[in-house]
């Protein structure tokens, strides 16, 4: 079967008045649903601790409206206190197109990660959402919270072993925050997972940079990238309303343009083959690694792959440029959708993608854990 994707109307700033009205309705509806989801989660917590929930929840004076969630490894002895137990720490940032989502969306991932082979302390960050709080509010929220957390003596953070990562919009924000002057030297590593990295590429162009595989049964075989219908609304909500092409290409938005020297020396990007954002991340990681910019117009390959497995012997899917003091690592998860490692996949338990994505999630978590402790967290 042909893999030609369903086309989408090109929408990008500057927006017309009719676009603004349409996206305002959609953007604020999504924003409200995101807030409602958070309150429902809190309400559920009144009737018992949620499964895989955090061990600690705190607020800081710099951003009292934002909760921060903390996950301790099972071996941590809270009675001994943080002075005697300093832990390698990973700060994580949830996704949601800068508009929806909450820290608890990543609870399961964070809960499982602190139980990997090499134990870490995980901190789940939060930020205010667009369209009520557009760019650059989220970046400044995360900067302020990071400084407060790293200065919190009650936490068992080893300040010499701190990494930051995030998913989708959170991956973009992790990159942007790590590049700020106030953050220089604070992070040993950066782990963006299926991040948006280049707002200057229009959605109709992005959907052509991935393969579509209609021969795969189920949701993954669709000829439409499931992000494409909502991306214009997310763009309207987050981007400056009168943004010029130069504004949209600025490094704090299009993080592919962040100078290499402003990022941590260890960067591990994980992207999904069936994702309109994968090619731009591939280009970014190739530049960071000092490799030629990919000549292929699409990331990945057109054929279906073995279920439950990664591809580590094909440089389209995996490479690493490592020195004694740095690493730039790329991983493209085959036949995986954007969000493959998040709980939204649980909606597809009758679809073959569910078991496949859960297996690949576990493999990716183990790779991140091993990579951190073989380089940036190496004793």
From TrEMBL:
InterPro entries, A to Z: AB_hydrolase_3, AB_hydrolase_fold, GDXG_lipolytic_enzyme
What's the source species for this entry?
Ophiostoma piceae (strain UAMH 11346)
- Top-rank taxon: Eukaryota
Residue intervals of the Alpha/beta hydrolase fold-3 domain:
90-305
Q: Does the keyword Hydrolase apply?
A: yes
- Which Pfam families does the UniProt entry name for this protein? Abhydrolase_3 (PF07859)
| Keywords recorded for this protein, A-Z | Hydrolase
One GO term in the molecular function aspect is: hydrolase activity
Name the chain's protein. Answer: Alpha beta hydrolase fold protein
Q: Which Gene3D superfamilies does the record cross-reference, listed alphabetically?
A: alpha/beta hydrolase
Q: Would the keyword Hydrolase be found if you checked this record's keyword annotation?
A: yes
